[in-house]
Amino acid sequence: MTTDQAKEKGKALILPLAVLLAFEAWARATHLQSDSLAPPSEIILALAGAFADFSILTATRDTLFSAFAGLAIGTVIGLALGIAFGISDTLNRLMEVTVEAIRPIPSIALLPIALIALGFGYRMEIVIVAFACVWPILILSRAAVRSIEPRLMEVSRALRLPAAQRVWKIIIPAALPRIFVAFRLSAGIALIVAVTVEIAINPLGLGAGIMLAQQALRPDLMLAYLVWIGVIGYALNILLVVAQHRLFGRAALSGDSA
Amino acid sequence: MANAAKRFEVIPGQPRPQIAFTEVTLQLGGKTIIENLSLGVRAGEFLCVVGASGCGKTTALRLAAGLYQPTSGRVDFDGQLMLHPRREIAIVFQDYGKALLPWRTAAGNVSLALEAGGMPSAERPARIEELLRTVGLPGHAGKYPAEMSGGMQQRLQIARCLAQEPKTLLMDEPFGALDAMTRQGLQDEVLALVAASGATVIFVTHDLDEAIYLGDRVIGLLPHPGRIGIELAVNLPRPRDQLSTREHPEFLRLRRQLFDFIKATEQ
Hints:
By secondary structure, chain A is mostly helical. Chain A has ten helices and no strands. Chain A has a single domain, classed as Orthogonal Bundle (MetI-like fold). Chain B contains ten helices and ten strands. In chain B, strand 4 and strand 5 form a beta hairpin. Chains A and B meet through helix 7 and helix 8 of A and strand 6 and helix 4 of B.
């Protein structure tokens, strides 16, 4: 990063910091008493407290475990289907109605069924996260496979590459930069869905932590959880962006805004 | 013209053509791209195909590669009906940038053809090095296509095609996107490679001088739909030379004839 870019990033921080300081000042001046708001200083203290007694770390572990397990399962299923549909027009036409009928179902609407079938705990949450992650991976990897340079497919035909080698040596590497963008998108979705399931019903992880703080009338702790979830989401995205640049370099730049 | 079209048919005492188009018609999306094309290419012949853009010369090449199937008529290779691409036929595409795998190094790209042919991995490195040396790319094995110039990328594509050990090399305006100096160098290298391997070549180009310089025979196609309009035997001595061949009276005569033909088709 050049110093100019660092300066730009620094400038972008000025406004949020000013808002926080103003809010802090206002909360102190008015001796804020609220069930939903807390001054930034108290939020920071609550966050530190939650770290000190490991409660937020345990919750983070539970949420990330469910989110990543669901993401992994959803990615494998979505990728297999997306590549198959991308290669075979016949298969795609056969399945299109089914896919378009199931895809709009909000993953959280599966909650009652998943709860009856699997009960509380990781399994139910993982299934719902996986369901949510399948679709973006499927749709984007299908599009990625279809947009592979036709010349490459002609090359593989002219070389008489067997079908398995064609998938492994041409299709997957050619589509990989775009598939990784889909993976990044799904990673964000996985975190959102996992926390949502926890807030709605599952008594574990960061979502349950927010609910507990709310019921205990601790707005500072509730907001501390919120801030922490934001930090995790931000860190996850940065991690994946760095990985993307390392793995694919310039080929992946087009997916930056995703 | 009818006599010329039938010439490829097996005549006692004459070898069977390696590639034979018999009354080939190809329609794509309701449009007739090629109509009633009959053509025979002898083993070891260097055939150049020229024509105005849109005359179907690239399509004819894809038919010869087995990438397209004719709507009617047939394409035969060594007396066998061509139903799909074959290992003995290699095709060099014009857009080398799209035909190479950007995620593989030069060695990896050549390796793809060897892998497709089922060569054991232990034998590949030596063969790859040999092929890269043949096309003038020794020492570039570890470079990615994006790190190479256009001429080098096209050499690399040729190396990958040679890895197939083709009986026939199909070339689709391979030097069209290269500068004049690079093009002349590669023309001579292709002539040397072909002379050494004895491969049959069908070479599509829009550069009339290039067609005469390289070919044993030049065919000019007429557009809409594509069909043979002119056929010229090139009786210029080999090996050819960029200076003396291009100044040869026969070269100039053929060049004049071909230019007149193309000019007439473009009206």
